[in-house]
Amino acid sequence: MAPKLILKYFDKAGAAEPIRWALEKGSLEWEDKRLTREEFGALKPSLPNGQVPVLSIDGFELAQSMAILRYVGKLGGLNPSDDLAAAKCDAIMDCVTDLHINIRPSFMEKDEAKKMEMRADLAANFIPKWLSNMEKQLSSTDGTFFFDKMTVADIMIACRLHPMRNGVLDGIPTTIADSYPSLCAMCDAVVSEPKVAAFLAKHAK
Ligand SMILES: N[C@@H](CCC(=O)N[C@@H](CS)C(=O)NCC(=O)O)C(=O)O
């Protein structure tokens, strides 16, 4: 019997969004539990690391977004089955973590002018290098995706690139990925996949 899955996170994209897309793409039954700050405060002491996202699996609370994404990918058939391809998939996912580590300080910056300086630096340096590395790896594969079909790696990248291309990151030009055609095609393929597209439409704010 399929496990009962409840994903607990805040009512925002953040670390839960690739997991949500993977749950949808994998056609899994799941509950999208979006916590208020008050609900999170009440739950925090009972969480494995006092943080979210957490995936409740038949009552067991699995923490750490990457572990959750890999687990959900496995349930939904979104992880490569070959060991080497799975390792390559992990490497791509770690690249997305690197992107997040580099962008995160600008999210935390309260001083608007300083934040825009950080974003300008990211747009001129780290992000183009990152995009170029991703494009190089993606365009060496046979099709749109990093592997022979959509995996959690594609989902994770699209989940970060799509908002960037739609102006969610102030100070990062929406055209920043335009000169990376394979990457843009992959991102478009993920967000237009019917189940992902339906989820995005439902949660468009
Ligand atoms: N390494 C963890 C990080 C989790 C994390 O930083 N969660 C944040 C939200 S994105 C959180 O729960 N913050 C509230 C808190 O720490 O009290 C993961 O990838 O799941």
The CATH C-level name of the largest domain is Mainly Alpha
Globally, the shape reads globular
Average pLDDT score: 96
Which structural class should the secondary elements be placed in?
alpha+beta
CATH topology of the largest domain: Glutathione S-transferase Yfyf (Class Pi), Chain A, domain 2
Classify the helix fraction into a percent range.
55-70%
**Beta-strand percent range:** 5-15%
Based on CA atoms alone, the radius of gyration comes out at 17 Å
**Number of structural domains:** 2
**Unreliable sequence segments:** none
**Multimeric state:** single chain
- What characterizes the major β-sheet? 4 strands, mixed
N-to-C terminal Cα separation, in Å? 35 Å
Helix and strand string, N-terminal first? EHEHEEHHHHHHH
Give the spatial strand order of the biggest sheet.
2-1-3-4
Instruction: Count the DSSP helices.
Output: 9
Tally the beta strands.
4
Bound molecules: glutathione
The CATH architecture category of the largest domain equals Up-down Bundle
Question: Secondary structure elements and their pairing?
Answer:
Elements: E1 5-10, H1 17-25, E2 30-35, H2 37-43, E3 54-57, E4 60-63, H3 65-75, H4 83-108, H5 112-124, H6 126-139, H7 152-165, H8 181-192, H9 194-203
Parallel strand pairs: 1-2
Antiparallel strand pairs: 1-3, 3-4
Helix pairs in contact: 1-3, 1-7, 1-9, 4-5, 4-6, 4-7, 7-8
The site of glutathione has 8 residues, from loops.
Quick summary of this structure?
The protein is α+β, with helices and mostly antiparallel strands and 205 residues long. It is 57% helix and 10% strand.
